[in-house]
C-alpha cells in the first residue's frame, strides 16, 4: 500500500480523532450520527447528497473538529445506516428530521454545510427555522436547477447501484460525482457496497429518488423568494467540473442571497470536499469563523 493510498483512506482521515459513532432517535428515524470536536464548540452540521452517507465527509471531519467546531455528520432517513424509508421523502421530511436531530442532540443553533441534497436541505431549513441557523455553506447545492438529463442520470445510476450493488455499478455512480475517476477509491466503493447491499435498501432508494421526478422536484425547488429571505451569511461553493449544472447556478444563488458569497473550486466535480479537501476545508472553516 502506497503513501498516497494511505492518505486517501477513510480510516486514515479519522485516525487519531476522538469521535463517537452512534444512533440517535430523531422523530421516527433511528439516525446514524458521528460527533467529533469539543463538546462546547460551535456546532457544525455536515449534510451529504442523495444516496450519500457520513463517509462522504471523511476527509473533512478531523479538520473541522481540530478547528474547534462540534462536528455533527449524519445519515438522512432512508440513507446510510439510518432507518430505511417506505415512503417518498420530500424536502419537508428532511427539514423535520434535521430539526428533530438537533433537538435530540440539545443543539439550539448550528452552522450547516450541505453538499448537493444537503445544500438543498440547508436552504429549506434556514427558511423554516432561521433562529436555529448560524451560517450556511452550500456545496454544489441541489434544488435550484432541474435538468431532465441530469435527473435521469442520477436516477438510473443510483437505482442500478442499489438494485445490484456490484463493484461496477457502485463505481459508476461514484465516478459520476468526480472530476477524476481515480478519486473513487476501492475503500469508498466497498463502503457504499456494504450500505447499498443492506436488505430493504433498494426499495428505500426508490423513495429517495422521488426528487428526480420533475413534478415533485418543482414543488420542492428553491425559489428566489426563499433565498432573499435568508439573512444568514451564506457561502455558495461550485466547481470547475460539476456534473449537475453550470457554475452560473451557484453564482445566481449567491447574488440573490442578501449575504451571499460565491467561490469556485477547480479540479473537482460534485464532491469538492473529497477531491479538493484541503482547499474546501480551509475555505469553509475560514468563512464559518469570520466575524
Q: Could you give the order of the helices and strands?
A: HHEEEHEHEHEHHHHHHEHEHH
| CATH class (first level) name | Alpha Beta
Total number of helical segments? 14
Any guess at the CATH architecture? 3-Layer(aba) Sandwich
Mean pLDDT: 96
Strand content: 15-25%
Question: Gyration radius, to the nearest Å?
Answer: 17 Å
- How do the strands of the widest beta sheet line up side by side? 1-2-4-3-5-6-7-8
> How does the helix and strand content classify structurally?
alpha/beta
The unreliable regions are: 1-6
Number of strands: 8
Work out the oligomeric state of the chains in this entry.
Answer: single chain
Distance, first to last CA: 43 Å
Shape: globular
Task: List the domain count as a whole number.
Answer: 1
Could you outline the blueprint of secondary structure elements for this entry?
Layout: H1 3-7, H2 10-14, E1 19-26, E2 29-36, E3 42-47, H3 61-66, E4 69-74, H4 91-104, E5 110-115, H5 117-128, E6 133-139, H6 148-163, H7 167-177, H8 186-196, H9 201-208, H10 214-220, H11 224-228, E7 234-239, H12 247-256, E8 260-265, H13 272-275, H14 277-289
Parallel strand pairs: 3-4, 3-5, 5-6, 6-7, 7-8
Antiparallel strand pairs: 1-2, 2-4
Helix pairs in contact: 4-5, 6-7, 6-9, 7-8
Question: What would you note in describing this structure?
Answer:
It is built from 14 helices and 8 strands. A hairpin with a 2-residue loop joins strand 1 and strand 2. The chain has a single domain, classed as Alpha/Beta hydrolase fold, catalytic domain (Rossmann fold, 3-Layer(aba) Sandwich), CATH 3.40.50.1820. The chain starts with a helix and ends with a helix. It is globular. It has 291 residues and is α/β, with parallel strands linked by helices. It has an 8-stranded mixed β-sheet with strand order 1-2-4-3-5-6-7-8, with helices on both faces.
Amino acid at each position: 500500500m502506497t503513501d498516497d493510498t494511505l492518505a486517501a483512506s477513510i480510516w486514515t482521515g479519522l485516525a487519531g480523532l476522538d469521535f463517537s459513532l452512534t444512533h440517535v432517535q430523531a422523530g421516527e428515524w433511528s439516525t446514524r450520527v458521528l460527533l467529533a470536536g469539543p463538546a462546547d464548540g460551535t456546532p457544525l452540521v455536515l449534510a451529504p447528497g442523495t444516496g450519500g452517507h457520513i463517509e462522504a465527509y471523511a476527509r473533512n471531519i478531523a479538520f473541522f473538529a481540530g478547528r474547534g467546531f462540534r462536528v455533527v455528520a449524519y445519515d438522512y432517513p432512508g440513507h446510510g445506516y439510518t432507518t430505511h424509508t417506505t415512503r417518498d421523502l420530500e424536502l419537508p421530511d428532511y427539514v423535520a428530521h434535521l430539526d428533530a436531530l438537533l433537538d435530540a442532540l440539545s443543539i439550539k443553533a448550528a452552522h450547516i454545510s450541505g453538499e448537493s441534497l444537503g445544500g438543498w436541505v440547508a436552504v429549506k431549513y434556514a427558511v423554516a427555522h432561521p433562529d436555529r441557523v448560524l451560517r450556511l455553506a452550500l456545496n454544489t447545492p441541489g434544488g435550484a436547477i432541474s435538468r431532465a438529463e441530469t435527473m435521469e442520470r442520477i436516477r438510473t445510476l443510483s437505482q442500478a447501484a442499489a438494485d445490484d450493488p456490484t463493484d461496477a455499478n457502485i463505481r459508476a455512480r461514484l465516478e459520476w460525482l468526480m472530476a477524476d475517476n481515480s478519486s473513487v477509491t476501492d475503500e469508498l466503493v466497498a463502503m457504499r457496497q456494504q450500505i447499498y447491499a443492506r436488505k430493504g435498501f433498494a426499495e428505500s432508494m426508490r423513495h429517495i429518488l422521488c426528487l428526480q421526478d420533475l413534478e415533485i422536484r418543482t414543488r420542492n425547488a428553491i425559489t428566489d423568494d426563499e433565498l432573499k429571505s435568508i439573512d444568514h451569511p451564506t457561502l455558495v461553493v461550485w466547481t470547475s467540473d460539476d456534473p449537475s449544472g453550470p457554475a452560473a447556478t451557484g453564482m445566481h444563488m449567491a447574488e440573490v442571497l442578501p449575504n451571499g458569497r460565491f467561490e469556485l473550486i477547480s479540479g473537482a466535480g460534485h464532491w469538492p470536499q473529497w477531491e479538493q479537501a484541503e482547499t474546501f476545508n480551509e475555505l469553509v472553516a475560514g468563512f464559518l469563523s469570520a466575524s
